[in-house]
Amino acid sequence: MINILSYNFSPEEINEFEKVMQFIERVNYKKNEFITGIGETEKYYYLTEEGIIRFWTIRNGKEVTLDFVFPTEFAGSYESLVLQEPSKINLQALTPVSLMRIAKAKFEEITSQSLILMNIKAAVLEKFLIHKFQREFQLLCDSPEERYIGLTRKYPELLNLIPLKYIASYLGVTPETVSRIRSRTSGK
Question: Three-state SS for 121?
Answer without folding.
Answer: helix
